[in-house]
Amino acid sequence: MLKRFLPNEHVKSIFDITPERLKKLGIEGVITDLDNTLVAWDVKDATDEVKQWFQHMKDHDIQVTIISNNDEERVSVFSGPLEAPFVYSARKPFSRAFKNTAKQMNLSKKKVVVIGDQLLTDVLGGNMAGFYTILVVPIVETDGKITRINRMIERRILNWMRKKGMITWEER
Ligand SMILES: [Mg+2]
């Protein structure tokens, strides 16, 4: 049961995820969360660093799609300038948006990673849909309303996993 919440990898930020590293894993596509993964949940636009990250992926022929549970306005305003495909109101952790996106990318699940800052949506959803999952540390410690409840549950799951010795990364 707890295994479903366990990411394959845990990194500090998306900038630790490079095309070179992904290619070693045989990865050609990235599905990434938006809020608190790419920028803080209350920041509207991509930073220069995020823009460069997207460009770097593109230069190495790695497709990147943004999948968010947030609404159309938030996700489209952010993704537009990046020229990145996006899915809003994705209803993570349900599998549908993940699976549809891999299909859109024309890639098998094995060639796609799911990146996000939340166990209950990104990691659980990515795992259940059969993808390799990478958890990042949330950019800021605050969250939007719904996420705050998820975080409370997340803390309990993290504590269980810690007690069982399932966590090999540093504490947040
Ligand atoms: Mg998030």
UniProtKB/TrEMBL annotation:
Biological process per Gene Ontology, one example term: small molecule metabolic process
* Superkingdom of the organism of origin: Bacteria
Signal peptide from the UniProt entry: none
Q: Which InterPro entries match?
A: HAD-like_hydrolase (IPR051400), HAD-like_sf (IPR036412), HAD-SF_hydro_IA (IPR006439), HAD-SF_hydro_IIIA (IPR006549), HAD_sf (IPR023214), PGPP1/Gep4 (IPR010021)
Name the cofactor(s): Mg(2+)
Keyword list (alphabetical) reads: Hydrolase, Magnesium, Metal-binding
Q: Which GO terms describe its molecular function?
A: metal ion binding; phosphatidylglycerophosphatase activity
What name does UniProt use for this protein?
Answer: YqeG family HAD IIIA-type phosphatase
Naturally occurring in which organism (per UniProt):
Gracilibacillus halophilus YIM-C55.5
